């Protein structure tokens, strides 16, 4: 089990929390095939000693990897790399960007800019962003790819008055917002199953009528000002979601 740690390229000088850096390193090793499905990962103590980290850091990294569906904990046995799943799984209990989700998995997430336009907000955008009639928005349409394969299409609408200085394009939207002190603090997301029309299916390289997930998300600043309304179509054969359920009063 200890030998698995030699395939984890952890860089202590990298930026960000140590547990996230470790989780990303393990995710990249899994993506490269260095850690195959079914591989037993080192114990928390063993990996902590090998890398000069605390057990708390290793435990947090393993927890993040399990939440992302990359590893699984087996009672009395340890942590193991999960087998292939038909879809990427996005956790629903924290707000994160597509780029961040894929980076944690060690995958190469890229975007192709489809359109960047300014215009008056539609009724749908007015309601989602609590704008007034005549207010304008910026619409950012992108094709999202993982390792070069199209996975989804996102159309983000942002209040023009708040985001004039934001550099929008193919990079991470949340990183661009953060650079202007406009980081989303929370969000509300709804989803439902749909069938893809010919245009969207063509961009996603699947047959028309293919199953997909339609996501609608509104993100808010820390003062509850809406900053983003995004509608996304993700391929049903390549993207899934996982929710954490806590037991309450089950009587």
From TrEMBL:
Alphabetized UniProt keyword annotations: DNA-binding, Transcription, Transcription regulation
Protein known as: GntR family transcriptional regulator
Gene Ontology annotations of biological process type: negative regulation of DNA-templated transcription
Regions crossing the membrane: none
Pfam family, one: GntR
Residues annotated as domain HTH gntR-type: 16-84
UniProt-listed PANTHER family: MANNOSYL-D-GLYCERATE TRANSPORT/METABOLISM SYSTEM REPRESSOR MNGR-RELATED, MANNOSYL-D-GLYCERATE TRANSPORT_METABOLISM SYSTEM REPRESSOR MNGR-RELATED
Keyword Nucleotide-binding tagged: no
Record-level Gene Ontology MF annotations: DNA binding; DNA-binding transcription factor activity
């Amino acid at each position: 089990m200890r030998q698995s740690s030699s395939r984890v390229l952890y860089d202590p000088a990298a930026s960000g929390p140590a547990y996230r850096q470790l989780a990303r390193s393990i995710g990249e090793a899994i993506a490269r095939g260095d850690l195959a499905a079914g591989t037993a990962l080192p114990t928390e103590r063993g990996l902590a000693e090998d890398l000069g980290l605390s057990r708390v850091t290793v435990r947090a990294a393993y927890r993040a990897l399990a939440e992302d569906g990359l590893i699984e904990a087996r009672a009395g046995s340890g942590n193991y790399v999960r087998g292939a799943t038909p879809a990427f799984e996005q956790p629903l209990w924290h707000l994160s960007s597509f780029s961040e989700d894929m980076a944690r998995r060690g995958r190469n997430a890229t975007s192709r800019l489809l359109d960047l336009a300014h215009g008056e907000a539609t009724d749908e955008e007015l309601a989602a962003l609590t704008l007034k009639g005549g207010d304008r928005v910026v619409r950012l349409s992108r094709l999202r790819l993982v390792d070069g394969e199209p996975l989804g299409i996102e159309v983000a609408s942002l209040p023009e008055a708040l985001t004039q200085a934001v550099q929008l394009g193919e990079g991470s939207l949340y990183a661009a917002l953060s650079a202007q002190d406009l980081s989303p603090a929370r969000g509300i997301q709804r989803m439902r199953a749909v069938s893809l029309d010919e245009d969207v299916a063509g961009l996603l390289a699947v047959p028309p009528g293919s199953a997909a997930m339609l996501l609608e998300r509104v993100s808010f600043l820390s003062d509850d000002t809406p900053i983003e309304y995004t509608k996304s179509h993700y391929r049903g054969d390549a993207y899934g979601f996982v929710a954490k359920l806590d037991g309450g009063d089950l009587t």
